[in-house]
């Protein structure tokens, strides 16, 4: 068994969204790991996720294409770093599929899912290389954007 990775939240470098939601962890996991589902909630409206390629295993690829209401496009390629089904999903844009360096890095995402009496304690962390990258992500609207995406995820899985 692979040991569980240890992450230290550094408030000078990292952002976190932590919320308890009233849906079961199994459905949160499916929404994160099934491309057809992820495309329905991942991008805060009016933006849309128009492509998702996801290989849910360490070294697997994670690519999304998001499109804005005025034709803007954001194509992001990354690598899955660690997976514990229904508990932990870790990915980064510093690496591409097969752990190949991309030459650029913005963040590593750590999605933790814990069962609670109400449903799921959902924790999303964005780890950055320096305070400037954290500030950039914060200024882009990390909390409102990732919070809206979580609201969309919850609405989606409640309808499943």
Automatic annotation (TrEMBL):
Q: Which Pfam families match?
A: AHSA1
Which ranges of the sequence are coiled-coil?
none
- The segment(s) forming the Activator of Hsp90 ATPase homologue 1/2-like C-terminal domain are 22-157
SUPFAM superfamilies documented for this protein:
Bet v1-like (SSF55961)
| Family to which this protein belongs | Belongs to the AHA1 family.
Name assigned to this protein: Polyketide cyclase
Q: Can you name the source organism?
A: Phreatobacter cathodiphilus
């Amino acid at each position: 068994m692979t040991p569980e990775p240890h992450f230290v939240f550094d408030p000078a470098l990292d952002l976190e969204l932590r919320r308890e939601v009233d849906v079961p962890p199994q459905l949160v996991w499916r929404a994160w790991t099934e491309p057809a589902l992820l495309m329905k909630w991942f991008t805060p409206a009016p933006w849309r996720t128009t492509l998702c390629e996801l290989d849910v295993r360490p070294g697997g690829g994670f690519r999304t294409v998001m499109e804005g209401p005025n034709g803007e496009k954001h194509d992001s390629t990354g690598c899955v770093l660690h997976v514990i089904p229904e508990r932990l999903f870790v990915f980064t844009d510093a690496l591409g599929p097969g752990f190949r360096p991309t030459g650029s890095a913005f963040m590593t995402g750590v999605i933790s899912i814990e069962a609670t009496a109400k449903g799921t304690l959902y924790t999303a962390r964005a780890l950055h290389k320096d305070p400037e990258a954290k500030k950039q992500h914060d200024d882009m609207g990390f909390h409102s954007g990732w919070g809206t995406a979580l609201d969309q995820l919850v609405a989606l899985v409640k309808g499943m």
